[in-house]
Amino acid sequence: MEGKIFQGDYAKRQEYISNLLGIGQTFDILKREIVIGDKQVSLFIVDGFLKGEVLEKMMEYFYSLKGQDMPDTYDEFIKKCTPYGDIITITTQEDFIHYVLSGLTCMLIEGYDEILAIDLREYPSRSVQEPDKDKVLRGSRDGFVESFMSNVSLIRRRIRDVNLTFEVLNLGSSSRTDISLVYMKNRVNEKALNIMRKRLDEITVDALTMNQESLAEVLMPRNWWNPYPKFKYTERPDTAAASILEGSVIVLVDNSPSAMIVPTSLFDIIEDPNDYYLPPVTGTYLRMTRVVTTFVALFLTPVYILLLDNPGWVPQWLDFILIKDEMNIPPLFQLLILELAIDGLRMAAVNTPNMLNTPLSIVAGIVFGDYTVNSGWFNSEIMLYMAFVAVANYTQSNMELGYAIKFQRILLLILTGIFGWWGFVAGVVLMIVAFFTNRTMAGRGYLYPLIPFDGHQLFKRFFRVSLTQNEKASHQG
């Protein structure tokens, strides 16, 4: 029965729909039978999605209708007898299943072929508080939540323009997940938008179980060996709105508290909202600090291993960096063990109850910072450089990029420790290959605006220009 809603008299249609939805078998789908005027009506509702106050007022109005008030046609009923504005007419079984399971209140009315769907939804949702991962020193303190319409409202609140467009579609034969493409019609990157539409139309999946990650993996299947992210994610509506105004396409997925930005490049991913909430000089300083810190964190330990293997390369004024104490464990193994230990501590902190997080962190810091050196497992110089690397990882707000840099650093460590100078060069070459083989959604280079070269855009990636100049450039683009 994939076409029209089951035809027949009211009783047969009601029975068929009740069996279709499993009324009586699943407790959260409810059926309520009432009389409006002189007509029998069945309401089909998902418990937990219902805005009870609005339904109560609407039912009060319905109960006041008399038999002579009920029109003979469905169109006249909608015009004269429905006090609530957000109404959808359902004519097919597929649409009926989608709307009722999405939380709409569906009404089967005796004598009418169509089914009326009224949007009285109120999804369970947390407050739109600032996301923990994308905090700013100054600026807006709201953030995306798991509620699809709340996220749409947060963007619409910032862009009051008729060119702002929200295209909605569903993916997943079982999950029927709502997805929205958000863009400005007069500024959007048309190539990226058309590619997104085409790929979304071609996707056939059962469910997007992990929301945006599931969508990203079916949109652009990545090479398992290339860890660099293909998309930029943000939990901040101000960042999403700014990207839309710059011509990007934003992808919102229901049940996900973040937005996917398309297309993106490495230089887009390393940008941070703090760069724009502070004056240009301060924003440029913070941006350059973050870039330099990330660069040093990538090469610090591999270069240190290279210098320990070749002490003759170390200038006399840098002799203090060499390890003078006895080494019970080779430096390469010390660094690799600490790389794993840092991630172990991070996962332990995530899974530790809040009341115990601080004391256990202090204990872990004492044990790993002091006792491991005194016991001879690690040398103090190794601990110092790995402490810098661990802290430097948090200067990068994008977690995927942070782990990509970590994997490249480990690869450089292993190759340098085994093959020396040639291994270090090979690791750098592999890293460059990973950059060049990582494509964006619009086919533009991952290193844009460096490759292909765009001097004006490259300047803006390193130096924070005034917001008025940035907006003017976006309008001209």
Any chance you could write out the topology, listing elements then pairs?
Blueprint: H1 10-21, E1 29-36, E2 39-46, H2 52-63, H3 74-81, E3 87-90, H4 93-101, E4 105-109, E5 115-118, H5 148-158, E6 164-171, E7 177-184, H6 190-202, H7 212-219, E8 232-234, H8 237-245, E9 249-253, E10 259-262, H9 266-269, H10 274-277, H11 280-309, H12 331-351, H13 354-374, H14 380-392, H15 399-419, H16 421-436, H17 455-462, H18 467-476
Antiparallel strand pairs: 1-2, 2-4, 3-5, 4-5, 6-7, 7-9, 8-10, 9-10
Helix pairs in contact: 5-8, 11-14, 11-15, 12-14, 12-15, 15-16
Q: What do these coordinates show?
A:
With 477 residues, the chain is α+β, with helices and mostly antiparallel strands. Helix content is 48%, strand content 12%. The protein is built from 18 helices and 10 strands. The strands form 2 sheets. It has a 5-stranded antiparallel β-sheet with strand order 1-2-4-5-3, covered by helices on one side. Strand 6 and strand 7 form a beta hairpin. Helix 5 crosses helix 8 and helix 15 runs antiparallel to helix 16. The longest helix is centred in the middle third of the chain and has 30 residues. The C terminus is likely disordered.
